[in-house]
What does this fold into?
Amino acid sequence: MKKLVVDVVENVFPSVFLAMDEIDAQILPGSDTAILVWRDSIHTREFFHNLKPWQTVNRIPMIETLCHKAFFIHGIQRLQKFFPETYHFIPQSYILPILDSYFAAEIKRTKKTYIVKPDSGSFGRGIEIINPGDEYKTPKFLAIAQEYIESYLIDNTKFDLRVYVLLSSIDPLEIFVYRDGVARFCSAKSGTDSKFSKLTNVELNKKNPDVEISQISKLISDVFSTMKSKGIDVDEIWSKIDEAVVLCIISCYGDILKAVQQSCPKISVYSRCFQLLGFDVLLDQNLKPWVLEVNYRPSLMFYRPQERRMKVKMLSELIRIACPLSSLQGAFLARKKEWYGLSFMSLISNEPGIIEAIARSKAKAVENSKFVKVYPTNNPHQRKWNEVMKKQMELPPENIFQLSKPLMEAMCGQNPP
It folds into this structure.
């Protein structure tokens, strides 16, 4: 079988190149013969329009509606009005500075702890913890405030989970959740006022001089194995995480679907765009999963050999599932004449064997992977998920900057003070 040709630039995580080597791909930067295009980030919609009709890319247009914190919370809160018992896995959240005065009153009224995070921040930068009695200062940038959830502790230490999600197709929607990931531990014991005891970001906790990387970055599989030995049903935890992942993606599905259809439409039976997402999930003291945020560019850096092996394996399995196109690559390279859009479509239409080979390759890749398909499935909750999706598609477009404060307050799920 012909090697998959990949257009990948140098400024990507080393684990990406290791995964390409794992699947025996041929790397040809800038080549139009590449079926797979891999980028760490894409800054303009024009990038998708400039792709060749046969190319698949590891980025999805408009994914920022899911991964920018304010837009994500706005989408969730719109659906919470209709499905309050379904969207119960997001901490109480406020979009700032739009709800500045309302949030300030809530701080005084509830006497709770909150975490304020910049809308597009990363690596723990710009995060502020507001404890009861602290003075609240209006942020000068778009941000969200979330109620602080008391975590399930291991060795009296807070941790959360970086769960890897493959959004392999938008049209139709197809979602996989990886049965491993990174458990990110605080570098200080719980119960202190230090950021190192309340924030789990690895880059932040690496700055603690008293910590070793093995203490703060572990594999989910290892942590769950320990929890299982204590009688905890980790399969139930995964099931709840799966449902939360599906419902989060559905919350902004309409906008993303429209963008994909306009900028990167599918060809025949395969999607031309996919994305690896990083869901940050916290287990509370009752082991209920809470989704804190979604990352469009989860770190693929590794700090230990175990983490390197896990991430390289995850990426190689992801590519085989999302881009099972080696048979198509072979047919593409066998042509002596230059390809163009119509000739490529003719190849797809007149060679049913290629389509069958793609389907077989994908099925084999899924079977041999730790990625579990969570949508669509025969899960009994899928009927409810489809109902939620139908409602989301019916909602008119909204710009959070144009909404009135009373409407935003109502969307928080509480009455204004």
The two ends are 66 Å apart (CA to CA).
